[in-house]
Each structure stands twice: as C-alpha cells, then as structure tokens.
Design brief:
Radius of gyration of chain B: 23 Å
Shape of chain A: globular
CATH topology of the largest domain in chain B: D-Maltodextrin-Binding Protein, domain 2
CATH superfamily of the largest domain in chain B: Periplasmic binding protein-like II
Number of domains of chain B: 2
Strand order of the largest sheet of chain B: 2-1-3-10-4-11
Strand content of chain B: 15-25%
Number of strands of chain A: 8
Radius of gyration of chain A: 18 Å
Structural class of chain A: alpha/beta
Oligomer: heterotrimer
Number of helices of chain A: 8
CATH superfamily of the domain at 25-66 and 125-215 in chain A: P-loop containing nucleotide triphosphate hydrolases
Strand content of chain A: 15-25%
Structural class of chain B: alpha/beta
Order of helices and strands of chain A: EEEHEHHHHEHEHEEH
Number of helices of chain B: 12
Helix content of chain A: 25-40%
Number of strands of chain B: 11
Distance between the termini of chain B: 70 Å
Amino acid sequence: MLALVDHFSGYQNRHVLRNINLTITEGESVAVVGESGAGKSTLLRQLYKLSPKTIALCPQTLGLVPTLSAFHNIYMGQLHQRAPFRHLLNLCWPQTSAWNNVLSIAKHVGVQELLRQPVSSLSGGQQQRVALARCLLQAQSEAVTTFIGDEPVSSVDQKHGGLLLEQLKEQFSTVIVAIHDRQFALQHFDRVIGIQHGSVVFDELSGNLTLQDLSAVCREQ
Amino acid sequence: MKRTDKNQSFVWVMLVVLGCFLSPASQAAETLVFTAIPDQDESRLRARFSIIASYLQEQLGVDVRYLPVKSYGAAVTAFKNDQVQLAWFGGLSGVRARSRVPGSSAIAQGYEDQFFTSYFIANRQQVSFTASPDIIPTSISSLDVLKGVTFSFGSKGSTSGRLMPEFYVRKHFSSAPNDVFRRVGFSGDHSRTIALVESGAFQAGAVNYKVWEKAVAQGSVDTEKVAVVWKTPTYPDYQWTIRGDVDQRFGKGFTEKVTDALLEMSEPALLKAFPRKSFVPAHNDDYVPIVNVAKSVGLID
Amino acid sequence: MPRLQKQETGQEGGLSKRFFRKIPLSLPTKATLMLIGVSIVCLFYADVEVAMTSPWAELQRLMLGALTPSYPSMSELFQAVVLTVQFAVVGVMVGVLFGFGFACAYQWAPVRWFCALTRAIHELFWALLLIAVIGVSPLAGLLAIAIPYSGIFAKVFYEMLLQANPDPDWVLKEKAGVMSRFVYGRLAQMAPRMARYIRYRLECALRSSAVLGFVGLPTLGYHLESAVKEGHYSEAWLLMYVLLALIGSKKWWFNRRTWLGLTVLACVFFPFLDGVSLQNLGQFFTEELVPSPLRDVAFGSDSFQSMFSSSASLLLPWFQMLWFNEILPGVINTLVLTMLALVATWVCVLVLLPPQSMWFAGKNLRFVGQGVALIVRSLPEIVLAFIVMLLVGPSMLPAIIALAVHNGGVISHLLQHQIDELRLREDHPKGLLLFCYEIMPRISTQFMSFWLYRWEVIMRETAILGLLGIPTLGFYIDSAFEDIRYDKALLLILTAAALNLFIEALSGRLQKRLYNKHR
C-alpha cells in the first residue's frame, strides 16, 4: 500500500504538489492524467520514494544507457540482486542463463531481435520497450510488486501500447501510470486520478468517469 | 550604468596608451652585459652575480648588467648573438662560444680552474670497492669496478660532469659510456647526481670536485653511503671569456680594463660567488686540451 | 496471476547459440582493447627494471621540506608570482587570438598542417629555438608558450565549431550576413565551452612557466625547477604550495569579471622588446640550420647537377649516422614509452575518478580525491618523475608513472565535471555496478576523446625525461641544443613532429569514428 498524507513538495516557496492525499492499495491499476507541468512526474517520483525496494520505475527519460546494448539495458533490472561478480562478468561476456532470461522478457515486449544493438541506434518506441523490459525483469523478484511508469508507452502506437500495458498489469499486482491519452486511461485502468496545478482534482473509478470529465484536466491536443 | 562602463573603458584605454610609452625601456647608453653558466646553486644565481655586476660597474665606469640564463646552450647562444659581451663559462662551453665568435678570448680563470678535476663517485652498498676518505685513488684502473653499473653524468654540456669523465671512460674502457655502463643518465646538476647516487637510483656518477667537497663539508651527503672511486687528472676549466669587439664599442683598452678588474677581485664576498680563491690570467691556448678532448669525444666538430 | 519465471534453461542453448549471444563490442571498448594490446607488445621492448634503492634519506629530506616550507626572499617570491601570472595570461591570450584566427581557416589543409607542426614541438624546444633566433628575451619565452598554444587552440576551437549544432546557422542562412550568422549561430553556442577551455589552458600555462626560466625570467616554475634539482626541498615545497594555491584559486582571480582587466594590465607591463636582437637572424638560417657537412663546402660555379650529387654524397653518411644512432632508437623509445604511459594513464583515470565524484564519494572523501587530483595535475612531470626515480631507480618506469599520474589527474578532473552533471534514473545501481553499467558507458566516448588527445601530449612530454637515461627523441633533441647543433636539432624536431602528426592523424581518425558512431 502506498499512501501520501497532506503531502507538499517543491522547492523554496514554489509548490509543485499541494496537499495531496492519496492511498493506492495492492492490486489496483491507476492512471494519472493532467496537462504537462501539472505535477504528474513529481507525484510519481514521490510515490516511488515511499517504497523503492518494491517498485519498478520507468521514468519519462527512460534512464537507458545509450552506448550499452539492449541486452545490457534490460539486464540492468537485475543489478539490485546480490551477485556483483556475475554482473561484471555479464557486462563483458553475457552468460547463457542471463541471456536466455533476458531473451524471454524481450519476447514479451517484442525487442528480441534487437538485443545486440546499442540502445542509441533504436527508435523512440523501441527504446521505450527496452525500458519496459528492464522493469519486467525486476518483476521476477518476489519483492517487486508495483510498476510506476511516466508515459511509458507514449511513443508506441495505440494497439501495441495497449498490449504492453496489459503485459505490465499481468506481471505487477499494482500498476501506476501517468498518461496523456484520455481514452486509454478509461479503457485500461481501474482508477483515474486527475491532477491540475499540483492538486488532485478528481480521483474516481474509471467506470464512473466520462471523456468529458477528463477533459477538464487534460485538454485535447 | 552605461556611463560607468564608458568611464571604465576610458581608463583602460589610457592605461594601454600609457603602457605603450613606458614599456620599451630606453637604453641609449652602452651597457656591458654578462652571463654565467648555471652550473650549481642555480637558485642563487641572481643574488650571486648582481654583486659582481655592481663591482664591475664601479671598476669599469660603464653600466654593467647580469643576464641570467638557465642552460649552457642559452649562455653560449647569448654570447654568440652579442647579447652578452662577457661570460663566465665552463671549459667546454667556453671553447664552444669562442669557436663561434672570432676574436673572442679567454681572459681570466679561477685559481682552482688551472687544475680542476672530476670525481667518480659510487654507492658503497651497490658497488664493492675500498675507499677511504683521506686517500682518493688516482690510478685509472680504479674505474674497473664501475663496469656494468648504472651511471649518471651531470648536465649534458658540463665539462666536469660530462666531458672529462666521458673522455676518461672512453680512454680506459676503449668504448662509449653506453657500452661500458648498463644505463647512462644525465641528472642535469652536480648536486642531483650526488643525491641520485646516495639513494642508489644510480649506482655511480661523475661530479665536479668542488661541489662534492662542499657537500661533504656541509654534511649534506652521507659518506658512509657514497664515496669517491677515482679522481681524474687535472684539466683547465671555468674561465671568463670576452668578445673581441668590445674595444671598438667601449673604447680602446677595454679588454685589459676588464681583465684587470677581474684579476684584482679580492673581496671574499665577491669571490664566494664563484666560489674561487682568486683569479689568474688565462689564454685561449690554455684550453687546447679541452678542444682536443671534446673533439675526440665528438662533442664538437 | 502468472508471474514471469526466471528462464535459465531455454530453448536457445546449444553451441551455435553461444556465438549468437556475443554482443559486438562498442567502439570505445574496441579501441581501448586495441591500445592495451599494442602496449602489451611494447612491454616486451620496454626497459622497466626496478633498481634496489635506499631512498629513505632523500625521501626524509623531501618530507621534511613538505613540513617546513620556507623561502629566503619574500620579495623574490612575490615577483615570481606576479611574473608567472603575467606570462601565463599574456601567453594564453596571444594564443587564443591567433588560435581563433587559425580555427576559422582550419578546413584549409596548409593551415591545419602548420598548426599541427606548431603544437608538435614542445614548449621547451620552442624556447631554445627562439632564443637562437631572436635572442635571450622575454619575448622568446612568451612566443614559446603562445606559438604551440595557438596551434592547440586552433584545433580545439575548430572542433567546437564543428560540434556546435548547425541548425541555428542553417535557419539563419539566406537571411543574415556571414558575420552575424557566425556570431549568433555558432559562436554563441561555443562561448561557454571556449571560456572553460581557456581557463583550463591558463592552468597549463602557469605550469609551463618553467620554460620561461630558460630565457632568464624568474617565474615560479624557474625557481621550483632549480630548487628540486638542487635538493632545496623546503623552498621547493613552498613554491609548490604557492603554485597550487595559484591554480586552485584561479576561478577567483581569472573569471568573467576580471579577465579583461588582467589581460590589459599584463600586456601593458610586458617588456615586449627587452633583449630582442635580430642580428643573428640571417646567420641562423643561412648557416646554423644548414647540415654541418655542407656548411664549409664552396660550390663555386659547378653545374646544378654536380652540386646536387656532391652534396648528396656528403649528406648521406651524415644522415645515415644520425638515423642509426639517434633517430631510429629515439623513435622506438618514444613510441614504446608513449604507448605504455597512455595505457597507464587509463588505469590512473579509473582509480582517480571515483573518489572525486558525488556518485561514489562522500564530502570528505571527495575533498581528498579532488585534492590529490589537483596536486598530481599541478606538479610538473619532471618533479614526479624525480620522486618516483628515487624509489624505483632509473628506467622507463618512473617516466611511465609520472606521465600516467599527471595525465590521469588531468583527465579525471575533466571527467568529474561531466559525470556529476549526469542525470540518472531514480533506481540506478550503486558502487561498482553504477560505475561499470551507468557511468562508464555514458562517458566512454568523452573519456576516449580526452584520452586520445592526451596521446599526443604524452608523446611531447616524453621529451623532458632525459634525466632518467631513456633516450627518447626529446632526449636527443635536448642534446643537440646543448651541443648547439641546430642542424641536427631541426632534423630531430621535424622527426618528432612527423611522429606527432602521425599519432594525431591516428587518434583523429579514431575520434572521428567514435563521434560519428555516437551521433
């Protein structure tokens, strides 16, 4: 369970988040909507900080290492596990077991053909898939149960984006995603939180919301 | 705001203009400039030689200035370019300078320079030889113990730290230092040669005898660790050399005037700058042995 | 909920798949491995023996000096500080001025070659050459710094111009004049990097002020070199501390507010014409630079052909002797030493970098790490080499260590700024894994380009390590100057320059490939 109570954050006297009260329980899938600059990314970061050990994070900037191959970038999801020597070995010379493990994850997001390429040579959508695969790899650890993503499928087309989201929901018990596509938010998530100027404007089950409700915080682009 | 900017730039412009008038120092009167090779105690060169400059100025009645240089080569070049008219050279650098300036001559040398000598020193832990502080071996066969050691000369252009030691090494072993010794280095300075041999970084080296004796007297070298292996036969070394055209420029008989001033130097404070007991007359012919040695070693053509 | 299970034994196993698993190495990795390979080959030719030494007496004196810094004359010290700053500022600014001019014409091959030649020659040899040409004068010292620096600035500024984003310039095309397009489109982009680079060069110039000692100017470097040479360690350390303080406090006395004033002041009080004598100029070119066998030959009215054949028959033995006795061994030793020092530099960077960075070190460790880097990059290599030589005896080893530690300090300092500006994801790994997986791959291209640039620098610096008894090209050049044989010196300098150009072309080609790949 992740909970923020009367939460403020920001720097000096400029608050990015004001008076946030949120509780997200295990098993929920939550979409966070709002205009850019509303405070979505900050909210996600604050949520992540609550329990970094149990959460796989996919930031908007993806956090990929451009010079490393897709394999290594996905493999980095495992680095928190104790085996420093193995990790260093795999950096220089990938072992069969690690390779196969990464390959199986890569198949789920459709980048199995790209594993040997450096990430810098991949397209935006492919890079997002690699970053998602890195998170999916973390799901193998029992401790990691939550996924937090900041526009994780923004560069992927609607159909594949939906498939990827379903994958995430299958692998993580809790999924929290910032998203700008209103349709998408209503279709794939149980609960939608609307943010405007750093405050929560609505927080409802998606069944109780319409596209118009979302328009209030998220203008048509 | 804008006004102060303008004012500021005005001040700068004025400073630049002022500087242009001031910077080329006006030197109308003929000045005698002299230099000295940086053989030892380099850091005190200025202090040491500025008192010589004022002494000469007093004696000669012309402006005298000391021009410091940091390499033997630069000293010779300055002499050749007529930037200095008088120089305190070593044996080799003096020969080199005079061969490039026709008419120039050696006029005075230190009393000790008539029979200068170099010491071959070695680290006692690394080279086995018998040494006593009182009797310094003079038989050249003492050099035999140095075969195959690592060896450091002083500066590349030094007479006592390089030329004469190399000459005797070649003479005794009939081959070049590179073949006699396992490794040959150039420490660049006599005091540093001593430090390197004492630490064992080099097993042996060659030094100016005056620098060695000063180090022993001051206790800056541990004679338990380093000792003299052999002392070379004597040879002429340091000397004052003057350009041939000074008489034209400073008046007839100027060369003699300079020579006399140097020979009459008797104040201990002045002599300590070199350091020499006194000065005696010298002639170009005194340095024929150095010319021959330098030719045989291949340091001059 | 069916969670993904670890699949360690998939269908992908088998021998053929083992090959398939191999990930192509990135270019920086490949280049690094290649250079390490070459240096391992060099190791067989290198002279790296360790002598048994008992350096304690000397080291004790050295340490004692560190604790009891003193200087006999405060006014001399003050004068040294002022002169050092003055020379560094004027030298760098003259270099910037010419360097920028050359950078604008750098596409033109002759300009490129000219600049490469100017920076291929060590400041010290420029000083010795200039003394011979224009006499022992402050101007010779100034030019000895300004000439190679303008070559370096030209190259670096040109690269900055190339790396500037071309879009603003492109957008302005057809709409604005050449000048304004250049200023708004390119110069504005590179200005901060230029300023940073100039500040860094100033640091180098403060250090290379030792060169100016050769023209009799008592700068800090001049006194420092003498003091170390003669074993006056108390003085040497005080001078070191002053030099360190000067370099460490650079940002307070040389910044956007003061640079103009300082430059003007330094120029105003610079004795540009002191001691300049041009009377040797003609003789230098018509006599001193002529190969010695040809000097005394009277050609008379011989035909051109017989003149050519007779001079060739005179020159050939001279050249042959030089080739086998000095050029060839010099080139081999220089190359071997350079390669080994280069790889050792790489190791030093890896060791020196983490303690300086906020990713790996706490405040205290960072202070120590940055302090160590400051010291090793401020200490002249010759001083480092001397200290190491006391410990391990003379061979290539002290030279390798001195060059590596010094250049490692420089590169790690430059990289530290870059890695501290990196923005990583929240859940990045820590410690060694952070270093290997996140930091190193991200900075590898930059690291590589600094490192390859240092290749040439290291090669130039091998010149000054003659005291270790390693006959590099620089050693022979120094000897030729000491023997006042400018004909020989020139030939050797040109050889060294050619070698430097070769290395530069090689590293340039590597860098270009890295850069293109990276884009």
